[in-house]
Write a structure and sequence with these properties.
The protein has six helices and seven strands, in the order βααααβββαβαββ. By secondary structure, the chain is an alpha+beta fold. A seven-stranded mixed β-sheet has the order 1-2-3-4-5-7-6.
C-alpha cells in the first residue's frame, strides 16, 4: 500500500510548533546509528537545541527545512543549505535527510529529496552536494537517485566507540 506523503517547508514560525516531532525524529535516527553529526545518546534537549539553532539561517533564507508528513504527522525532514557567496549561488548542500525508521523504504526519503531538488531549482540552484558515511545505506540510496561520488575522506568522523569512519562526498547536477 502506497503512502500519501506531503512535502512542505517548515518555516521559522512553525519550527517551535514542530520542535517535539523534529527532536524525536533526530534522536531516533541518531540512536539507530545514522550519521548526522551527533553521537548517541542524544538527549531530547540537545536535539531541540540543534533545531532551534537553525532559526537565524531560516530567517535569513540561507537554509530551507522541508518536512515530510503522512496523515498530518511529521515523519521525515531534509534541509538545503544555500550559500550566498557570489560564486556559489548556483549550488546548495543537502543536509540531514531523516526518515522515521518505521517508514524507511516506503518512499518518504525519495519524496523529500525530490522536494529538495524542486526547491533548489526554484532558487536557481543547479548543483547539489552532500556528505554521508561511506558504506552506509544512505550512500546507496543517493547513488540510486543519480548522485555521483566526488571523493572520499578517510577517518572524517568518529563513531560511538571512537572508531574513525570514512566520509563520501556526492554531487548531483539538476537538469
Amino acid at each position: 500500500m502506497s503512502l500519501a506523503i506531503s512535502i512542505r517547508p517548515v518555516t521559522m514560525e512553525e519550527l517551535e510548533h514542530q520542535l517535539a516531532a523534529l527532536s524525536s525524529l533526530l534522536s531516533e535516527s541518531v540512536h539507530s546509528g545514522a550519521s548526522l553529526g551527533f553521537l548517541p545518546p542524544l538527549s531530547r534537549s540537545d536535539a531541540a537545541a540543534y533545531w532551534l539553532s537553525l532559526r537565524s539561517d531560516l530567517r535569513a533564507g540561507t537554509r530551507l527545512l522541508l518536512g515530510a508528513y503522512v496523515d498530518g504527522c511529521l515523519v521525515g525532514s531534509g534541509q538545503l543549505a544555500l550559500p550566498r557567496w557570489p560564486n556559489a549561488r548556483h549550488r546548495a548542500e543537502v543536509q540531514k535527510l531523516i526518515v522515521s525508521s518505521t517508514l524507511q523504504g516506503r518512499g518518504v526519503g525519495g519524496a523529500l529529496l525530490a522536494g529538495l531538488h524542486q526547491a533548489a531549482r526554484q532558487r536557481g540552484r543547479s548543483l547539489l552536494l552532500l556528505n554521508t558515511r561511506r558504506g552506509d545505506s544512505p550512500e546507496s540510496f543517493y547513488k540510486a537517485l543519480g548522485y555521483r561520488v566526488a571523493g572520499v575522506i578517510p577517518g572524517y568522523s568518529v563513531g560511538p566507540s571512537g572508531q574513525r569512519m570514512d566520509n563520501v562526498t556526492l554531487y548531483h547536477e539538476l537538469i
